[in-house]
Structure formats: C-alpha cells, structure tokens
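[audit] Reproducing an earlier prediction to check determinism. Same input, same settings, fresh worker. If the tokens differ from the archived copy the diff job will pick it up downstream; this log only records the rerun itself.
[audit] input (333 residues):
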Amino acid sequence: MRISSPALLPLLLLTTAVIFYKYLDDILIGLTKKEVIPYVLTTDDVAAGCAMTDAFAPLLTRISNNTKSSYQLTVLFEFLSGSCFEFKAWEEELRYLRASYVNNVTEAQDARIKQKRLLNQAASKQFKAFRGLGMVLKEESGTDCPDLAAGNAEFYWLIGMLGGVQAILNDLSSEGGANVPLDVAYQVSRGIACLDDQKWWGVPKAIQAAIWVSFPGNKPAGVDPLMLLQRSIQIGLENRMRISQVLAAQVYIGLGDITQVKKIIRYDAEIKDQITSNLEFRFLDEVATLQLQAISDRLWTEATGKRTPIGGLGRFSDDPKNAVDTVDINDIL
C-alpha cells in the first residue's frame, strides 16, 4: 500500500519534535553540569543553593531519568533538595520545643505534625537520590561495586549513599511515611565500601559505623563502630570537611550520649577559624556546619526555650560561667 505525502507529514513533524526536544535536553544537561553544579557545590550561600536546587530539581530529574550518563543529576539534586527540607523541619522542631517549654500543648502538637511532614518529604527525596544509583548498576551483574572510574562517578556514588542513610533516619523520624525499606541500610553498608575512606573525608567508614550502631545485626565481628566514628571525624577535619562530625553526632544522639554530642560541637567551634572549608565542596561543608548548629539549637531550646545565642556555638546553658576550652589545630593534623 502506498502512503500519500499528507499522511507522512504528522510522522515527520513528530520525529522532528522528538529530535528537537532531545537536543534541548542535551543542552540543558550540559549547561547544568558545566555551570549549575559547580556553582551549587562551591557556594557558601546555602539559602541560594537551596533555591537553585528547588528550581532545577523537578525538570532535571525528569530528564535524567531517561539517560544513564546523566543519572548524577537525580542523585545530586534530590539529595540536596532533601537536605533543604531538613532545614525547614529543624525550625518546626524548635517551634515544638519552645511550645513544650511553656506548656503550650496545641502549638507543640501542630509543630510536631509539620516537622514530620517535612521530614517525610526530605526522606522521599533522599530515597530518590539513592535509587538514582540504580542507573549505574543496570549493566552490572554479580558485583557490589560498579565501575566508578569515569569522571566524578565516585562523588555521586558517595552522595547517593548518603541519601540512602539519611532517607532511613528521616523516614523513621516521620513515622515511616516515605516507605523507605530498612534493607536500604544493608545495601548502603555494602555499597559505601566501594569508596576509599581517606579520599572521601572519612565519610564511608562513618556511614558504616552509623549503620552498624543503628542495626547491630549487620556489624562485622570484632569491629567497634564508635572507634571508627572517632577516626572518621579526624580524617574529615584533615580534609576540611565536617560531614563525619554530623554523622557521629546523630549516632550519639540516638545513643542518648549528649556529652559526646556536645564534645563534637565544642571541638568544631574551637577549630572553626583554623580550618577553612574545602572550597571544591564548600556547600556540603556549610550544610554540615548548619546541621551542627541545628543540634546545638535543639539542646539550647530544650534547656532554655531559646536557640543558641549569637556567638555561643560551642557553649551550652549548663556550662560553668568561666569555662574556657582551647583546641590547637596541630593536635589533629
């Protein structure tokens, strides 16, 4: 049967449109990798980074879902977007604590509900970041570690694994609304072993330690997770990155060891001016710094009804009036 020229026109237009939009997608992906991602990772303006992440994440995630080579966009932007939702959840937690401090039950209940909603959104996005790593594994078989030799593949693998562990923690805190399977913890503890601990700021071992403390059934025999955490903190500071400190603080909060939590925050405050952020990944380090600030705010608000005073990071409401602790940067390098 012969097809007339008019009948071919719609097919030709459709084909042209597909090619055109594929071309636009490639341009957007290339521009994002060349300009947007370097800006977000190196800025110390966390608010601006969050605004850019929220603006770009939906579109870029849609595009990257169809392209193995651009899976990094899903991993990075969903993880960062989840972190930004965590910031909002922290403020609701402080509102809850302030209301509890003055026995305002209704306000406290409302704040807790809003906090859990935000943590649910954070967990959902962080879980998407973790699942984004599946694009790397599609062509892998019989191995826990994919080929991470190309480009910045190791960095995105690290971010995806961080997304997995944070998704579990936030999902548990929001009563499981994001439906993050607990076996993600097992997958992360194995997958993060693909990275060199020294190269990646002590974070791989810190993640494993956090998982082994939270889920002891996965812990290898003869391993002391808390010793691993302490070593990870040192490696992180040597590399001017504070992510391991945050993971350690979260672990000690879960254990109820507030003395250790305060020690971590004091230590960071003492050396803050002696250790500048790793400029290549400044945004991540600034986020970690804000997370430590948020933990300090929580402890202050529980005790006094107010967050950490200006210039008060590293001190706590029950400290002796004249207590002064000093830390020499040479002690950790």
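[audit] rerun output stored. Observation attached for the diff report: DSSP finds twelve helices and no strands in the chain.
[audit] end
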